[in-house]
Amino acid sequence: MLRAGVDLGGTKIQTVIMAPDNTILGSHRCLTPTDGGPADVAEAIAGAVRASIEDGLVDPLDVTALGLGSPGQIDAAAGTVSNAGNLPGWAAITYPLADDLFSRLGLPVKLGNDVQVAVRAEAELGAGRGYGSFLGIFAGTGIGGSVVMADELWLGRGAAGEIGHMVVALDGELCPCGRRGCTEAYAGRAAMETTARQWVAAGRSTALFDIMAAKGRTRLASGVWAKALSRGDEMAIELIDRAVVALGAAAGSAVNLLDVEAVIIGGGLGIRLGEEFVERIRIAAMDHIVMPAQPPDFRLAELGDLGGAMGAALLATP
Ligand SMILES: [Zn+2]
User: Please, are residues 58 and 85 in contact by the beta-carbon 8 Å criterion?
Assistant: First the structure.
């Protein structure tokens, strides 16, 4: 009785095959299609699931269920994903992803919010173990968040935890959500790339896009940012500094509101920039925390790039 887990992101698709004791038997990672539409994304997901089954050398018939964490709005009961703006052709539509994947793979599919499944994995198997309450902040293409209170994921009416759209600057930078001054406008990779392109168009220089091209990428992926920082690229340093300030303000404000025991930082950018990034966010957050005598722990997500897919596999647990 094995479970497949899929972390569907704006940049990559990560899949795992998980054993009953939650160890990982196989995995696969590929880029998310950047054009086409939802059916092309579903085809890429199915291919990645098959590749992880091959990677794990497991019998495909032993895989009995599939869980998937997706961006956008999820209707778990209907098996649909709506308004997933970071995915091609998915900005303003509702797509029956669970039915599509069932027809391609023959597996029952459970859908969940990408960040909520990643936080569940950290809570059960990673850095969140031992904390009854924590805030998860996932810095990737966008900024996702989720809140665990009294050992339970706090979902609100389904949309809780959107720390990426906590306002850190009134009338600030334009956010991909269309509003101004959100955390994501400063710390989301897509927004940072938009700003970098604007600065280049205005005549500033940076190695970011050369590094991107040398890596054969078309977007400023987390590894591109990490490499530019290690080279001392001024624009990369300035944009990451802004991201740290914004994430610190958002985390500090959320801690003031919720008084959680820990803040766990993950996501592609968080994982790639690592402990130093977490420590910088902690220092930035402390400026805003009104009860500094009892600060929360700031921890790097432990499950790395596999956390989202592992959480998705947990979702598929009968
Ligand atoms: Zn926003």
Answer: no
